[in-house]
Specification:
single chain; mainly alpha; two-stranded parallel sheet
Length: 112
């Protein structure tokens, strides 16, 4: 989240308000897309809370089709609990737990 928070601050400092960005760190670095989505969208939510009268509109370029669903799903969770950030964080924690369970099930399949 620090990466995205710093990015949004640099956007603000540069006088911009509508950046486009890739799903940072999901390529060669290999960070799971749901973790990147959580970090990016939480950082954007916090930026909006700090600057409600001067919002940033971010477009995320998902270069892999399977990245679209996690970003939209997590965005929907944050919007559903927009004014209750603690509840949004808890929902995201549950989503992250589900993703981890799915990943461990995939590992079980590989061992068979």
């Amino acid at each position: 989240m620090l990466l995205h928070g710093n990015l949004f601050q640099a956007v603000r400092d540069g006088g911009f308000r509508s950046p486009a960005m890739p799903a940072l760190c999901t390529g060669e670095i290999g960070v799971p897309v749901h973790l990147v989505a959580i970090g990016a969208l939480r950082a954007l939510h916090r930026d909006f809370i700090k600057h409600p009268t001067d919002p940033i509109r971010v477009r995320v370029a998902c270069f892999e089709a399977e990245h679209w669903y996690p970003f939209n799903n997590i965005k929907d969770e944050i919007l559903e609990h927009f004014f209750l950030p603690e509840k949004a964080d808890f929902s995201l924690y549950l989503l992250d737990s589900d993703e981890d369970d799915d990943d461990s099930n995939d590992d079980d399949d590989d061992q068979r």
